[in-house]
């Protein structure tokens, strides 16, 4: 029986049923754009995340990894020491073998090694297992040295970004807002993917509130020798004095004690690296020596003027000289200092 042969009342009910269903279909269609936008936003969020391999998972590598994980990036790590337990707690995949790390094809290799071990670590990496367009980034406290290493050792296809977050686990424990982050795009490919990837990495620090400073590696090292190296040198010099807190500390003295504490917390290898691998540091050592000598001459010269006034200003110079002179030493006939018995005789 066709629809047209059905009773009129049934056809009316059927049409009424269709009319009743149609609003539900339209409501479902109205929800689809929202779901689509949500999926688009989710896909965009995922595309803004990076897979980052940290080489050198010591104290500083762990410090950076926590921020990377917090922002949703995938973090892998490799180190000569076994930090697998710490990595699990942070949410990082740890690899004892660098080959295994490289075979995961991270988009970014982040070097967090010590300055003096950077070359040996870089040369030992099986870069042939990485994608040929991988981005290499360092966070060393000197910049010309790693820049030259990257350009010398890495194939032309690899991108290079030299950075220096000028803070650490102690100075950055309460957040990175306003702290300087220095970088130079040493070799970044011109295609859209490479430029976008480099910007995504820099955005990690921008999102944490860092003060982003684009600067050449050579300019960074000149400034760092005048600031960071001097700070470490003065802090370590004061540390040699074994200064102690007193019941009458001034604000200035408290500052010195804090300086000693902050610099002594860093390894000597870091300090040595600041000296050895920054060509400007030797000049700063010489300037410190010259400044201290000049200050001593100024002090003793002023003291000499005061003594002369005391000695000769009241006309009793000879008496003052005699009073200030060391006691005379009696000598026996042999030119030797006389004993108490010989003097009495």
From TrEMBL:
Extract one GO BP annotation from the record: tyrosine biosynthetic process
User: Which GO molecular function terms does the record list?
Assistant: arogenate dehydrogenase (NADP+) activity; NAD+ binding; prephenate dehydrogenase (NAD+) activity; prephenate dehydrogenase (NADP+) activity
> Organism's domain of life?
Eukaryota
Q: Which UniProt keywords apply?
A: Oxidoreductase
Protein name, UniProt field = Prephenate/arogenate dehydrogenase domain-containing protein
Q: Which residues form a coiled coil?
A: none
Task: List the SUPFAM superfamilies.
Answer: 6-phosphogluconate dehydrogenase C-terminal domain-like, NAD(P)-binding Rossmann-fold domains
Q: Would the keyword DNA-binding be found if you checked this record's keyword annotation?
A: no
Native source organism of the sequence: Amborella trichopoda
- Domain Prephenate/arogenate dehydrogenase residues, every copy: 50-329
A Pfam short name: TYRAAT1_C
